[in-house]
Design a protein that fits this description.
Elements (H helix, E strand, L loop, with lengths): L6 H29 L5 H37 L2
Helix pairs in contact: 1-2
Length: 79
């Protein structure tokens, strides 16, 4: 028996994935900006924190991608 996933749910997952990727790109660019200036101790701390924010954003992308891919596999291959 085939269980079809509502296309609107797939659309939502795809949108969530795209939004997560956009946030990750912004985090990468922010970290890059901080690496491109003369650093004081406070700026080094901010740069380091930006690296943690980038990692958190990357983890959100990976989670959103997994949900979306799993849903697509279920929809098209029933597994």
């Amino acid at each position: 028996m085939s269980v079809s996933i509502d296309i609107s749910k797939l659309d939502q997952m795809q949108s969530a994935y795209k939004a997560a990727v956009d946030a990750w790109i912004a985090a990468i660019r922010h970290e890059e900006e901080l690496a491109s200036v003369d650093h004081t101790i406070a700026e080094v701390d901010e740069w380091e924190n930006a690296g943690f924010q980038e990692e958190a954003a990357r983890n959100k992308v990976k989670a959103a991608k997994k949900l979306y891919e799993d849903a697509l596999r279920q929809e098209f291959f029933n597994f």
